[in-house]
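Lab meeting tomorrow. Look over both lines:
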Amino acid sequence: NEEINDVDVQELVRRSIGRLTIIRQTFPVPQNISQRCFRGNHRISSSLCDPKDPFSQSMEISNLYIYDTVLLLANAFHKKLEDRKWHSMASLTCIRKNSKPWQGGRSMLETIKKGGVNGLTGELEFAENGGNPNVHFEILGTNYGEDLGRGIRKLGCWNPITGLNGSLTDRKLENNMRGVVLRVVTVLEEPFVMVSENVLGKPKKYQGFSIDVLEALATYLGFKYEIYVAPDHKYGSPQDDGSWNGLIGELVFKRADIGISALTITPDRENVVDFTTRYMDYSVGVLLRKAEKTVDMFACLAPFDLSLWACIAGTVLLVGLLVYLLNWLNPPRLQMGSMTSTTLYNSMWFVYGSFVQQGGEVPYTTLATRLMMGAWWLFALIVISSYTANLAAFLTITRIENSIQSLQDLSRQTDIPYGTVLDSAVYEHVRVKGMNPFERDSMYSQMWRMINRSNGSENNVLESTAGIQKVLV
């Protein structure tokens, strides 16, 4: 940020977390105090040229460039007037559209490019590519001393001619913790902290992502550590009397020097203990048991109820019987040599074939039979269309059945009970939001009613592993 000053740098270093690298533009200050406010024949106000003046310290870089730009334009106009090459502006107007453009624009631009000025930003001039070859930048960085305090130092400087002057190589942190034995408290949470070896009579050995980080720090800084699990196996939450339990409680009561696990940084915890820079971001997820895929041989019958299938079968038999009776009372005229007869079996087969859109083999030519079959075909078209639509909807609903995509979906339903780990960050967040009468989002109050069922003992667990087993059962 070019606009950052020394006060802003110190404030940024004090408030920020982690290593900082700051790049800002600098301007050369004349060593001769009496000449600081003079730039050739131009005299600058002392409130602008004195680096100790509060007004000059609050000046932004853009203001400095605006001042030098006006000074550069004034010099260019003055030079054009001295050379008697000034183009009059008397004929220019912004009202008439047919006024001729000013003829001195291009020559004025060339005069500005060839000129230069020594102002508040130093030497302001233009190179062939239009840039200023006299800009200077300094690079600042935070460092850590032996007293573990933070400071800011100049790492190097840069200009367009010589490039980078300095080194940006990070200095190794001082190994000033050799011989120190730290007591580390943890909470078992896969894959961050896990027990790798548990031999009777020997200290437990641990492994996991957090353990690898702790081991790397111990090797880098030279300290040793003793690790143990929090007695109540909890991360830590405030109690009614103001004390803390779990891992945070061990740190608050100074029974441990360091706590390491899958610990969430919350404002309440930051009020009582110090956290390092976070090394992992996560969002709240919902663990659901995977639906078992069962093969149903009669899934094709699911769109219609059993009673509806019985009615359809009865209708096929009834219409087949009616067709047979109509042809028996008024036999159709068959072609010579035809072997097809209008028996009850053939009538039933013809009605069923037309229902499944496969046609029939018996020619029925009487008017009554054709009227009957026309009504039957219309009925079959409606039933088949309804069956196809219901089958597609049934397969879609089956595919997304019991799917919960977000916390909003979880809070809206009550068929699936849910909970979380007691005294965890998620538990405290839902509890505070759900018990707040001024909370606008009703999702938290709905979730808290489910989580707090039977005072939290029904759906919640003490450890995440127990929650996984509870979902699988």
